[in-house]
């Protein structure tokens, strides 16, 4: 009897612990982390790996619209957009991502607003009931993307309303095993509009590290390395070329670190390419040193010289292409992508002109006088 009593008490304690720990999980981002998303997975859904899911989106009314989507990119993402309807409530628009174009409304019968959705205390709140979204790991982590636009209210109930391009975005993962609740009804009915307790916060938003990363890497590969290589045919001083390129090299690693701090860096192909390019770039200063030493000794280019030249050119091209890919995956505007392409084209033309000028000048000197090393015959190369 005593053992049965002990077992009953232990079971009751375990049940109580499970009930008390079961609660929705939240994530906040945007300016000052004021945009918050909350997920609740009914225990029946978690056990069967399919079923209903509850989502809550809340944000200050200073935002024109807020969007939350499944997956790690816009393409084929199931999206939930909310904005003010002009009557003191919110409009929920379900949309399907189509790459980097404005997502258009896609009807989802199993998705609807539920009790508690409102605009209160200058905060938009959307409590959402969703049927099975497919490809959800209810016992593990799932990738999500979010975006937002500040500005005046849309004041519309039109679920297919046109929206302006976002001015902030983020991607992150959510562990659904920590969001299981022991009921299948609205779990948000008594939640306040304050930042949810225990909410984790992430990157994205105005001034985020992904923006810093993009700016630094664009300057490095569009201007830094190419201009550094042009210093040789223009100035003809190897130590100026080497100093410039080493400064750019260090700046590149600062941009790499900023990218690593961005929430979604390791989830995209551009990050893999960027990591490879930065890693391979470590070899380039070594090749540059060997090239300079051999040129001083032999007074002509050797195999190391050509390796230094073409290895650097290949990495520079990869870096520029990867930057354009990064802009597309980050959802940059067409104007920004076109601007990046124009600068890249101009830089390429300048680089080519400098290389041709160097070759012609070198050939002319070679015809009229013996070659004497003065530190100015280093190849058009990249560190």
Automatic annotation (TrEMBL):
Organism whose genome encodes this protein: Gibberella nygamai
Q: Does the keyword Plastid apply?
A: no
Q: List, for all copies, the residue spans of the domain called Cellobiose dehydrogenase-like cytochrome.
A: 31-180
Q: Which Pfam families match?
A: CDH-cyt (PF16010)
Q: What is this protein called?
A: Cellobiose dehydrogenase-like cytochrome domain-containing protein
Q: Which residues form the signal peptide?
A: 1-22
Source organism lineage?
Answer: Eukaryota, Fungi, Dikarya, Ascomycota, Pezizomycotina
Q: Which CDD domains did the record assign? A: CDH_like_cytochrome (cd09630), Cyt_b561_FRRS1_like (cd08760)
Where are the membrane-spanning stretches?
A: 215-235, 272-290, 310-331, 337-356
Which terms are listed as keywords in the entry?
Membrane, Signal, Transmembrane, Transmembrane helix
